[in-house]
Amino acid sequence: MFCTGIENSIPTINNGRTRVDQMEVCGHYRHWRTDFDLLREMGIGFLRYGPPIHRTYLGPGRYDWEFADLTFNELRRRDVNPIVDLCHFGVPDWIGNFQNPDFPALFARYAGDFAERFPWVQLYTPVNEMFICAMFSAKYGWWNEQGTTDQTFVTALKHIVKANVLAMQAILKRRPDAIFIQSESSEYFHADSPDAIGPAEILNSMRFLSLDLNYGRRVDSEMYEYLLDNGMTKEEYHFFLGNRLKQHCILGNDYYCTNEHRVHADGRTWASGEVFGYSEITRQYYGRYGLPVMHTETNFKEGPNGDEAVNWLWKEWANVLRIRNVGIPTVGFTWYSLTDQVDWDTALREQNGTVNPLGLYDLDRNIRPVGRAYKELIASWKEVLPAQSLCLSVPIVPPSHWNRLDAREQQVQAAARMAHEPPVPSIVEPGT
């Protein structure tokens, strides 16, 4: 699945007074038809994309579907497979922030109603980068609730992951063959000195918390104590163990040059740059979860030479081929995003209007060197990969085929809706 994305982050800053809307500042609301044209130009059939939740979800059971109807109906007409990103770093004003205990149930209703309205959609990322969302909002103090304690972090984390699990359940009731592609940041923390080994080990355990809970995996004993010491109850913890939907999931992981960190003895961290790289860190995540892998985000800033992003694309693609060739089932790659982004150099904490040249296209929709390189990469590899010795088939139903599901499948879906219990098929089948 060669993929790109249209950035739809919407966190709030300034204690909730200011909304940062990347679709607005990057021009997608005005140029969405052109943006979809660019997908065809690139030869891309998969798009990480979602409606702006703060403009769409007006209250319990109240929606403004106008923009979603326009864009998703056009994606369906073009037979583009959206990987639907329903919550990207923020919530509507009326929900408040991720400290709100009502958020999981409210979000699940939104996800279910979206799936009801767009039944042809099969691929979902209900909540994007759950670990990063909780860290930036409730530990680093940057977004939304701007919390800075372990308790605010654990509270945000448990609400975000529960929302993701409940959303998967709600979607499966409408679309039993839905596939969930997590987009989660893949991190590693390097000890800077012998005295930093302990703090680094703790951080390297914390990096797995969101996915451990999401996949119903028992956390490490130290992390169990950490969660309970900071506000998670035993009942809340057992909710995750008892609602395991791992069999419907693909492990989507994101990697940037900022995903590896050096750790000081006092726990302070700073970016280390690429040390292990995507392939080694992905081995660690795959070894823990054993799910098919998709590289769901990467990019690099185009610099003065003009080839910096092109070289990073080549390096990341080499890493993807490496993990695939050593037997890790790998199903997709993503350059994120389609166009340049704005103010990510300050992690959206400031509204400076700084254009970050990270996209396949600039904000005038002119192709960048990395866009040309990605287009060539897709054309060169799309027919080669299925012929390799590792055979993996993801049972995707393209939008153009949704109405042609056979009668038996339609009966299964109807029965599942009536029973309110989704069947549990395997998401991958060898061969095919």
TrEMBL record:
Gene3D superfamilies: Glycosidases. GO terms for molecular function: hydrolase activity, hydrolyzing O-glycosyl compounds. InterPro entries: GH, Glyco_hydro_1, Glycosyl_Hydrolase_39. Coiled coil: none annotated. One of its GO terms (biological process) is carbohydrate metabolic process. SUPFAM superfamilies: (Trans)glycosidases. This is Beta-glucosidase/6-phospho-beta-glucosidase/beta-galactosidase. It comes from Sphingobium subterraneum.
